[in-house]
TrEMBL record, chain A:
<keyword id="KW-0574">Periplasm</keyword>
<keyword id="KW-0732">Signal</keyword>
<dbReference type="GO" id="GO:0042597">
    <property type="term" value="C:periplasmic space"/>
</dbReference>
<comment type="similarity">
    <text>Belongs to the bacterial solute-binding protein 1 family.</text>
</comment>
<protein>
    <submittedName>
        <fullName>Sugar ABC transporter</fullName>
    </submittedName>
</protein>
<dbReference type="Pfam" id="PF01547">
    <property type="entry name" value="SBP_bac_1"/>
</dbReference>
<dbReference type="InterPro" id="IPR050490">
    <property type="entry name" value="Bact_solute-bd_prot1"/>
</dbReference>
<dbReference type="InterPro" id="IPR006059">
    <property type="entry name" value="SBP"/>
</dbReference>
<feature type="signal peptide">
    <location>
        <begin position="1"/>
        <end position="23"/>
    </location>
</feature>
Length: 404, 311
C-alpha cells in the first residue's frame, strides 16, 4: 500500500515535471504574411513582442508578395507546408476558412473578448458564425480627393452624406482637357453599387449580377466613363496604371480605395488630400469594410503556442506599432487613435469620415467564388467603359461565367 | 562476292558476340552514370505528367481530396464552357499571325545582316538581346508604353493620329501582345537563320553568279533551299512556344478586355491558380498538348514538300 502511494506520488511528481519541461520547451512558430520586403522589420518587431511576452516562443515571419501569397497559400496548405500562423484577408475567407483552426473553443478557454475589435471586421474574419482569425486592420472603401483641384475648380468639398449626383457633378466640373475628375478602378463596381443600395447576390448568397438594381448602379458608374468622360478607362492588365497612380500624378482628382493605402498615398502626392465617404443613392448611406488578420493553421503542431502568439500579434501593443507606422488602421478600436494621430494627421476629415462610415457599415456579402467575380469584373468591365459593349451585356457575360 | 562473305562471316559474328557482352557491361555503367538524370526526369517530368492525366479526370480544388468525375471535365470543356471556343480561336489567331510575322521578319533581318560588310556581330548581339531579357520585365515595360494615357498614346496624339488606346480595345489588344512577342522573339530566329545563311557554301553562290543568276534568284533558288532545315526547326519551335503564350498576356491584359486576349496558356493559369479548379485546368492542359502534338505532326508531314536536306 505504502509502496503504491509512493509510486503514485513519484509518478505524479514526474508527470508534473515533464509538463513543466514541456511548457518551457522552445517552440518555433512560422508566420506567413504578404507584404513588401521593406515592411520586414515592422513584422519582425511584432514577432519580437511575442518572444518578449513568452520567452519560449519565437516567431519567424515568412513574407511574399500579395499575388504570390494567394497562389502559394493553397499549394502550401495541400502539401502540408503551411506556416503555424497564417495571414488572411476578409474577402478571401470563404475560400480558405477550411485551412484555419476555429478559434471559438480557444476564446472560451480563456474568456477572450472580441468586443475590443471593430464589429464588421470580426464578422469579416469569420465564416458561418465561427471565428477563424483576429484582425490587425480594418477599413471601408472611401473616396480620396485632391483638395487643391477642388478649390481651383470651385467645387465644394464633399459632405458626409453626399449623393451620387453630387459626386457626378463634382467629377464633371473637375474634368478639364487631359485632367480627369475621377479615375475608375475595377473594385468601384463592388463598393460603389453597394453604397448606392444595390445587391450583387440573391437571397441565398449566390451571384445575381444581372438584377435590375445592381445593373442600374453599375450603369451609373459606367456612364461616368463612357458617356460623361470624367474618368479614363482602366486596362485589365495586372500591372496596369491604376487610379492611385493617376491620382498621385494629379491626373485624376478623385479615386476610390481603402485607408490601408492612406499613408503611401499621402507620401506620394505633393498636394493636399482629403477623404470622403462613397456617394449614396436615394436611401441611407451604407458601406462595406474589409480588413486582414491572422489565424492559426488547422494543421499546426503548436496550436496552443500559436494562439498565445496570435493574441500578442493582434494585441494592443502590436496594434499601436502598426498604427503609428501608418501601416494599418487597427481593428482594435482603442488603438485607432494612433493611426489618426500619425498616418491621418494631415488628411482632412479622416476621423469624422471613418466614424460615419463605420456607423453605416453593412455586412460585406461574399461566397467562395468571390475571387472569380473580381477577376471577371477586371477583365470584362473595360468593354462597357470603352463603349464596345453595354453594361447589361457585360454583366450577363460575367453572370454566365460564374459557377453557381 | 561469296568468298568475301565467307571470310567476313565468322569474324563479324565473334565480334558481335564479344561486342554485345561489352555493350551490356558498358550499358550497365552508362545506366548508373545516367541514373541521377533519369531519377530527376522521372520525378519532375514523368510523374507530374501522369499526375496531370489523372487529375484531368477529377474535380480537385487544391484544398481537400480529389474526386473522380470521369470524362465530365472534357465534356464540360467542349460543350458547356462558354469560354473554350473563343480561347481556342484567340490562341490559333495569335499563333498564325505571330508565326508568319516572326519568320518573315527574322529571315529578312538575317539576310540583311549577312549582307553587311561590317558590324555583323554587333547587330547579331543587338537583335539577340531581347532573348535573354526576362519576359515578365519586357512585358511590364511594354505595358507601361501601351497603357491608356501612356507613352504610345502620347506619341499617337502628338502626330495627330486618333486611335483608341491599345490595351483597352478588343481588336488592338491582341496586336499589342503580338508586337511585344515579336520584339522579344524575333532575335532568336534571326541569329539562327543568320548562322545558317553563313553556312551556305560560297562556291554555290559563286557558280550561280557566273551562270547569270541575280540576287533574287540566288536567294530563292540556292540560299533558301539550303537553309530550309534550319527554317523548319525555327518554325516548329516558334509555333510551339506561341501556342503556349502566357507571360505577356498575364502582365499586359489578363485575357481582357473581355476575352479578346484570353489564350489556352492563360486559361490554364486562370482556372488552376486563380479559381483553384486543378482538375479542369489539367483538362485544358491536355487539350493544349494534343493540339500542339497534332500541329507539330502536320508540320513534320509538310516538311517533305519544302525542306531540303543536303545529303
Amino acid at each position: 500500500m505504502k509502496l503504491t502511494t509512493v509510486l503514485a506520488a513519484a509518478f505524479l511528481a514526474s508527470s508534473a515535471f515533464i509538463a513543466t519541461v514541456q511548457a518551457q520547451e522552445q517552440v518555433n512558430l512560422t508566420w506567413q504574411m504578404w507584404g513588401d520586403e521593406k515592411d520586414a522589420p515592422l513584422w519582425q518587431s511584432l514577432a519580437d513582442l511575442v518572444t518578449a511576452e513568452y520567452p519560449n516562443i519565437t516567431v519567424t515571419p515568412q513574407i511574399s508578395g500579395w499575388t504570390d501569397y494567394w497562389t502559394r497559400l493553397p499549394v502550401l496548405a495541400s502539401s502540408g507546408q503551411i506556416a503555424d500562423l497564417v495571414a488572411m484577408q476578409s474577402m478571401r475567407m470563404p475560400s480558405f476558412y477550411s485551412i484555419l483552426e476555429p478559434l471559438d473553443a480557444h476564446f472560451a478557454s480563456d474568456g477572450f473578448d472580441v468586443s475590443a475589435f471593430e464589429t464588421s471586421i470580426i464578422a469579416g474574419l469569420g465564416h458561418d458564425g465561427t471565428q477563424y482569425a483576429l484582425p490587425y486592420d480594418v477599413g471601408p472603401w472611401l473616396v480620396y480627393y485632391n483638395r487643391d483641384r477642388f478649390a481651383e475648380a470651385g467645387v465644394a468639398e464633399p459632405a458626409l452624406d453626399w449623393t451620387f449626383d453630387d459626386f457626378k457633378a463634382a467629377a464633371q466640373k473637375l474634368t478639364e482637357g487631359e485632367n480627369y475628375g475621377y479615375a475608375v478602378q475595377a473594385f468601384d463596381f463592388v463598393a460603389g453599387p453597394v453604397a448606392l443600395g444595390a445587391e450583387y447576390f440573391n437571397d441565398s448568397n449566390q451571384f445575381d449580377v444581372t438584377n435590375a438594381g445592381y445593373a442600374a448602379a453599375v450603369g451609373k458608374f459606367v456612364d461616368l466613363v463612357a458617356v460623361d468622360k470624367t474618368s479614363p478607362v482602366f486596362a485589365s492588365g495586372a500591372g496596369a496604371i491604376t487610379g492611385s497612380g493617376r491620382f498621385a500624378a494629379g491626373n485624376a482628382a478623385m479615386y476610390i480605395d481603402g485607408p490601408w493605402v492612406l499613408q503611401q498615398t499621402k507620401d506620394s502626392v505633393d498636394f493636399n488630400i482629403g477623404v470622403a465617404p462613397l456617394p449614396r443613392g436615394e436611401g441611407e448611406s451604407r458601406f462595406i469594410t474589409a480588413g486582414s488578420g491572422w489565424g492559426i493553421s488547422a494543421t499546426s503542431q503548436h496550436k496552443e503556442e500559436a494562439y498565445k502568439a496570435l493574441q500578442v500579434l493582434t494585441g494592443p501593443k502590436a496594434a499601436e506599432i502598426l498604427a503609428s507606422a501608418g501601416r494599418a488602421l487597427p481593428g482594435r478600436l482603442a488603438e485607432q487613435k494612433f493611426w489618426y494621430d500619425v498616418a491621418a494627421k494631415d488628411v482632412a476629415g479622416t476621423h469624422e469620415v471613418l466614424d460615419y462610415m463605420f456607423a453605416h457599415s453593412t455586412p460585406f456579402r461574399l461566397n467562395e467564388y468571390w475571387n472569380e467575380f473580381e477577376n471577371l469584373i477586371t477583365q470584362y468591365m473595360p468593354l462597357a467603359l470603352n463603349g464596345d459593349s453595354t453594361t447589361d451585356a457585360v454583366l450577363a457575360d460575367i453572370q454566365n461565367q460564374l459557377p453557381f | 562476292m561469296a568468298a568475301i562473305e565467307d571470310v567476313s562471316g565468322p569474324t563479324s559474328r565473334t565480334r558481335s558476340r564479344w561486342g554485345s557482352r561489352l555493350d551490356r557491361r558498358e550499358g550497365r555503367t552508362a545506366f548508373f552514370f545516367l541514373l541521377p538524370g533519369l531519377i530527376g526526369m522521372v520525378l519532375f517530368l514523368v510523374v507530374p505528367i501522369i499526375a496531370s492525366v489523372v487529375l484531368s479526370f477529377t474535380n480537385w480544388k487544391l484544398l481537400g481530396t480529389p474526386q473522380f468525375v470521369g470524362i465530365s471535365n472534357y465534356v464540360r470543356l467542349f460543350t458547356a464552357d462558354p469560354q473554350f471556343w473563343p480561347v481556342l480561336r484567340n490562341t490559333l489567331f495569335f499563333t498564325a499571325e505571330y508565326l508568319v510575322l516572326n519568320i518573315v521578319i527574322s529571315l529578312g533581318l538575317a539576310v540583311w545582316i549577312s549582307s553587311l560588310k561590317m558590324g555583323q556581330r554587333w547587330f547579331r548581339v543587338v537583335f539577340f538581346l531581347p532573348t535573354f531579357t526576362p519576359g515578365i520585365a519586357v512585358a511590364i515595360v511594354w505595358m507601361l508604353i501601351f497603357a491608356p494615357g501612356g507613352f504610345f498614346d502620347f506619341i499617337m496624339r502628338s502626330v495627330s493620329i486618333a486611335m483608341p488606346s491599345m490595351l483597352t480595345d478588343q481588336t488592338l489588344a491582341m496586336q499589342a501582345i503580338i508586337i511585344v512577342s515579336l520584339w522579344a522573339g524575333v532575335g532568336y530566329n534571326t541569329v539562327l537563320f543568320n548562322a545558317a545563311l553563313d553556312m551556305v557554301p560560297q562556291s554555290y553562290l559563286e557558280a550561280a553568279r557566273i551562270d547569270g543568276a541575280n540576287a533574287w534568284q540566288r536567294f530563292w533558288k540556292i540560299r533558301l533551299p539550303l537553309i530550309s532545315p534550319t527554317l523548319f526547326f525555327g518554325t516548329v519551335m516558334t509555333a510551339i512556344t506561341s501556342l503556349q503564350v502566357f507571360d505577356q498576356i498575364y502582365v499586359m491584359t489578363r485575357g481582357g478586355p473581355g476575352n479578346a486576349t484570353a489564350t489556352l496558356g492563360y486559361a490554364i493559369y486562370q482556372r488552376g491558380f486563380q479559381n483553384f479548379q486543378m482538375g479542369y485546368a489539367s483538362t485544358i492542359a491536355w487539350v493544349m498538348f494534343a493540339m500542339i502534338m497534332a500541329l507539330t505532326a502536320v508540320q513534320f508531314w509538310l516538311q517533305r514538300k519544302w525542306v531540303h536536306y543536303d545529303n
